[in-house]
Amino acid sequence: MIFIVIRIDIRPEKKEDFLAGIVTYSAQVREEPGNLVFSCFASVERPEEYAVIANYVDQAAGEAHVSSEHAQWFFGWLPSVVASVPKIVYQELPDGVGWSEMGEVVLEGS
């Protein structure tokens, strides 16, 4: 599995443009074969900071994503709304490694 986290700092005056663009883009990415997760989250402490979490089944799915028409649009559009170049963490995880429940948290009534 490919595990990606991207930190994006947007320009405050471009917030509405960013939100409209990321909602559309997220929906397109989620429809891709091989996409497992694509979600964008707002920071609760810094209103200009967003994080994107993306998971793909393998490197081939990630490569197909990057070459897609909507990804090429996104990469060209993003500089119009960001305050700095986004930061990325990209990890290729071994087979069988992925999301698991957090052992330190137990739900009430369980």
Automatic annotation (TrEMBL):
Record-level Gene Ontology MF annotations: monooxygenase activity
Q: Does the keyword Zinc apply?
A: no
Looking at the record, the residues that make up the ABM domain are: 2-90
| Keyword flag Cell cycle | no
* Entry keywords, A to Z: Monooxygenase, Oxidoreductase
**Domain of life from the UniProt record:** Bacteria
Q: Spell out the PROSITE patterns in the cross-references.
A: ABM
User: Which InterPro entries does this UniProt record tie to the protein?
Assistant: ABM_dom, AI-2_Isomerase_LsrG, Dimeric_a/b-barrel
The protein depicted here goes by the name: Antibiotic biosynthesis monooxygenase
Q: Which organism is it from?
A: Pseudonocardia petroleophila
